[in-house]
Amino acid sequence: MRDKIIEILNDTRPEFDFEKESEGFLEKGFLDSFDIISLVSDFEEVLGLSISGDQIIPENFNSISAIINLLNKIDN
Amino acid sequence: MKFSFSNIEITGILSILPSREIIFKDEISNYNFTEKQSLKLSKIMGYGSRRVVQNGTTVSDLCIHGLNYLINDKALDKESIDALILVTQTPDYFLPPTSNIIAGSLGLGEDVLCLDINQGCAGYEVGLLQAFMLLEQRHINKVVLLNADVLSTKVSEKDRNSKPLVGDGATITIVENKPNINDINLYIKMDGKGAKAIQIPAGAFKLPSTKLTANLTKDKSGNERSLDDLVMKGDDVFNFVQTKVPQMVKDIFKDLSISDDNIDYYLFHQPNKFMLEKLADKMSVKRDKMPNNIVGKYGNGSGITVPLNICENLNDKLDKTNLNVILGGFGVGLTWSMIVCVLKKMNFCKIINY
Prior knowledge:
- The complex is a heterodimer.
- Chain A is mostly helical.
- Chain A has helices at 2-12, 33-47, 64-75.
- In chain A, α1 crosses α2.
- The relative contact order of chain A is 0.20.
- Chain B contains 9 helices and 17 strands.
- In chain B, the strands form 5 sheets. Chain B has a 6-stranded mixed sheet, sandwiched between helices. In chain B, strands 1-9-16-15-14 form a 5-stranded mixed sheet, sandwiched between helices.
- By secondary structure, chain B is an alpha/beta fold.
């Protein structure tokens, strides 16, 4: 799952290297609210999950580990 | 806060849209993002086209055009108007009130009450609240509610977050005293702590416009805007909508002892397609009960989106049957408000161009 997440992140903002930078995505300006929407759409399509509106908050997308935690929680 | 009203009916809605149409794909090169990123976002958010005014067209132009249309068509007798309410964030002038200008242009009598209200996304609900309260007065029988904005002129060309969304337009809603077995229940909440989540920082008296405020600066995401332009804190607004709106619906169901089964349509403000889809899912409401097609066709025109939603999606249906609806606005202020009512066949419910 980690590799897939990095692939989707790099596809969303190809100017950054999400393999190297694994956290602080929002503070560092790597992602904004519209990128998060784009990520949600990709995760839902690729991983077959449904992410509810109240889970779409910056904290859940600020690092690779936060994203993994979110997706694992939904999957379970 | 809850308000309840009886023997009041919405008897007509006219939407007036600028004929100038902007297509999202034609503007992609304005934004500091790749075409691929922009096109992907357009699919998710529902960007398509929007209607915007020509330079120099103001809300009074749109409203006067619509009112003259109705008067000439004999759908509105101007002598019967008791009050004129205009809800707008983009008045013609700081003073005088734009509703006075409109009344003067139409030659309305001195006894016609004119009111300007500064409200945005929940502007339809706030305007209707004012109209309903006025109609409780013995001598007021017909109120004309105008919702109108030309916000496209206050959005930076290089702001991908807002530019593709914002549209212009006006709506005219006629609200009258009429015997009606169905009460209207209106719920409204406001949280001023979040007021700056959606704002235009400069241009009024807190921070007057200057050459400095007009300078474009780039944000962390690559969008460029000045202090004279609209700015939205996307995360805060999204989170606000996803938490407050479903809770209000839940509270309404409990208060009125009803459920989703009693509601035919949720006619909500139209920020973008994604937000409305997530809202419908969160509320466990079938997506086709919550139309989300206004942004992609006409743009987000702030307070006009709910009446425009009715004109676009319910016009034909209302000819055949009454509909139990929840009208919902949420955004600027922060304000969120819902009206539970029955919509019936109207004298007019249509869209015209300006």
